[in-house]
């Protein structure tokens, strides 16, 4: 392939595959390069949240993702060493703020297969597996990649206007950018033990359990179908080689399951890290997913952050590549996403400190606190984006807009497509200037008078009369008047204005 690509994506994990699906929808020419022949076959992520399901929905894959996942409605239980439940982090309903359940469980290779199949819809999105990127040179108008075909050994140069490194924790794009990783403090080895039940084991709960035993903290998860996982903290004196032997594994989980009831799928020791890249972009090179950040999995958020990266980046790449925005718009990708993912990693680290307590006295104190109920420490974070394409002090700005049900029974996003949107009182929408009206027209902004009761209720609750949404469903600004709506509409990519 010698033509100039819009975007080259290095890495075909969840970050790369999701970004390729979103860019495919925009009609951009994309090449995904992946070193491995097949999807990484072993279980890794098992949980994603409602916002992430909504991104899959935007990518046109909600039905396919639902078919391989299950909503997690039952919450997370915190049990002490004796098995007594101290605290329950509440579950969610079938339809939460994003128009779906807030938690979903899945088997990562099955999700990746869905994402890969999704790309067949886009002839202009090409994938080369067994192709390794060995070098990158950034240039004024494009970047050049050296790509090695691992079967033939042939090396070929490829050119792209932008390169996104979705190439995982050991990212070579990150090295090309030359950035350091900020260490957020937690690095702890855990054994991840996945089994497949041979038949139903009625005593195994549907919900997730944090076994807060200071002698050996563990987490139990019901994944999907007959898959169950135990995450088991390594303790001082553990011999990693012994730990992954079947006899040790079965002994560790003997309270709950036996080798007669289940088969081992795999057992691997991972060191969970909490790091974030200092710089996510240099010139035409950008980072997304594990290449940019890694989190301990206590909130089940590593891949979720990767999907949020893809969603934030896709519309910006499209606007810049089509000449609707200046290249500077891409700076807002890191400035918005880095503080957001930082907040999630901080909470995962905090949660890890609580779960990983091994001092018996500290554990007793923690358990006493649990019993009096302090669920606020487990509240799902709702950070704002960092500075970028939004404006205003209202708490909802730079947060995701919910996805209400419309009166016609369709969810809101179905009418938004990949566009900006203004939603609000008809009177306010009609009171904007002629300039704004032209700008909306020019940018294909969807205009939605707030006639649906759920939308009206949200506006009323927030005390605002109109809201400007970005294609990634984040709120760019809110308005009480046509004049205020004029002001926030100046954020639309024609100007690529960056707030703050
Ligand atoms: C035990 C465990 C449990 C987890 N649980 C959760 C969870 O419940 N929820 C959650 O959201 N996340 C979870 N995660 C995290 C999640 O698995 C990762 O965040 C996710 O896989 C990252 O996706 P990615 O696409 O950024 O990177 P990866 O999946 O690592 O993909 C990177 C790809 O890039 C390719 N590549 C690298 N270099 C090159 C090159 N030079 N040329 C070509 N290709 C290249 C690699 O072969 C690889 O396929 C968990 C992780 C682990 C290990």
Topology overview:
Layout: E1 5-10, H1 14-25, E2 30-34, E3 47-49, H2 50-58, H3 62-68, E4 69-71, E5 76-80, E6 85-89, E7 103-106, H4 108-118, E8 125-129, E9 131-138, E10 143-149, E11 155-165, H5 172-177, E12 181-197, E13 208-212, E14 218-222, E15 227-233, H6 240-243, H7 246-252, E16 262-277, E17 281-282, E18 285-287, E19 293-294, H8 302-321, H9 331-355, H10 360-372, E20 421-424, H11 426-430, H12 434-443, E21 446-449, H13 453-462, E22 466-469, E23 475-479, H14 482-489
Parallel strand pairs: 1-2, 1-11, 2-8, 5-13, 11-18, 20-21
Antiparallel strand pairs: 3-7, 4-7, 5-6, 9-10, 10-11, 12-15, 12-16, 13-14, 14-15, 16-19, 17-18, 20-22, 22-23
Name its key features.
single chain; about 500 residues; alpha+beta; eight-stranded mixed sheet; 14 helices; 23 strands; about 25% strand; globular
Protein architecture, described:
This protein is α+β, with helices and mostly antiparallel strands. It is 29% helix and 27% strand. The strands form four sheets. Strands 1, 2, 8, 9, 10, 11, 17 and 18 form an eight-stranded mixed β-sheet that branches. An eight-stranded mixed β-sheet has the order 6-5-13-14-15-12-16-19, with helices on both faces. It has a four-stranded mixed β-sheet with strand order 21-20-22-23, with helices on both faces. α1 runs parallel beside α4 and α1 (14-25) packs parallel to α8 (302-321). The longest helix is centred in the last third of the chain and has 25 residues, at 331-355. It starts with a strand and ends in an 11-residue tail after the last helix. It binds flavin-adenine dinucleotide.
């Amino acid at each position: 392939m010698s033509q100039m690509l819009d975007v080259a994506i290095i890495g075909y994990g969840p970050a790369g595959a999701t970004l390729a699906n979103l860019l495919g929808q925009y009609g951009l020419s994309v090449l995904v390069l992946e070193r491995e022949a097949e999807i990484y076959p072993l279980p890794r992520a098992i949980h994603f949240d409602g916002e992430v399901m909504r991104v899959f929905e935007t990518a046109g894959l909600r039905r396919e993702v639902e078919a391989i996942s299950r909503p997690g409605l039952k919450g997370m239980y915190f049990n002490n060493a004796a098995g007594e439940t101290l605290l329950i982090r509440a579950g969610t309903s079938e339809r939460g703020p994003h128009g779906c359940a807030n938690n979903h469980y899945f088997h990562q290779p099955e999700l990746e297969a869905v994402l890969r199949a999704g790309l067949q819809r886009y002839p202009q999105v090409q994938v080369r597996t067994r192709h390794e990127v060995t070098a990158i040179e950034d240039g004024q108008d494009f970047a050049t990649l050296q790509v090695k075909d691992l079967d033939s050994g042939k090396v070929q140069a490829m050119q792209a206007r932008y390169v996104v490194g979705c190439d995982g924790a050991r990212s070579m794009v990150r090295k090309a950018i030359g950035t350091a990783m900020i260490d957020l403090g937690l690095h702890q080895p855990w054994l991840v033990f996945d089994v497949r039940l041979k038949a139903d084991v009625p005593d195994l709960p549907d919900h997730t359990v944090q076994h807060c035993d200071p002698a050996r903290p563990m987490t139990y998860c019901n994944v999907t179908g007959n898959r169950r996982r135990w995450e088991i903290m390594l303790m001082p004196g553990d011999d990693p080689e012994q730990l992954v032997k079947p006899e040790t594994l079965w002994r560790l989980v003997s309270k709950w399951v036996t080798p007669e009831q289940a088969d081992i799928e795999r057992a691997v020791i991972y060191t969970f890290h909490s790091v974030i890249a200092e710089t996510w972009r240099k010139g035409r090179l950008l980072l997304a997913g594990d290449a940019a950040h890694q989190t301990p999995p206590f909130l089940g958020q590593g891949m979720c952050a990767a999907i949020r990266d893809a969603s934030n980046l896709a519309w910006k790449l499209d606007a810049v590549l089509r000449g609707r925005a200046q290249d500077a718009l891409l700076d807002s990708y890191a400035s918005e996403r880095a503080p957001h993912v930082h907040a999630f990693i901080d909470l995962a680290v905090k949660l890890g400190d609580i779960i990983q307590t091994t001092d018996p006295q500290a554990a007793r104190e923690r358990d006493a606190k649990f019993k009096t109920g302090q669920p606020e420490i487990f509240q799902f974070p709702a950070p704002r984006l960092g500075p970028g394409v939004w404006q205003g002090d209202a708490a909802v700005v730079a947060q995701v807009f919910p996805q209400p049900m419309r009166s016609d029974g369709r969810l809101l996003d179905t009418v938004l497509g990949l566009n900006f949107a203004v939603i609000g009182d008809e009177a306010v929408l009609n009171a904007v200037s002629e300039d704004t009206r032209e700008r909306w027209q020019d940018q294909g902004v969807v205009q939605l008078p707030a006639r649906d009761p759920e939308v009206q209720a949200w506006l009323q609750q927030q005390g605002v009369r109109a809201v400007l949404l970005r294609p990634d469903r984040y709120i760019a600004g809110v308005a009480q008047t046509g004049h205020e709506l004029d002001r926030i509409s100046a954020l639309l990519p024609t100007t690529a204005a960056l707030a703050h």
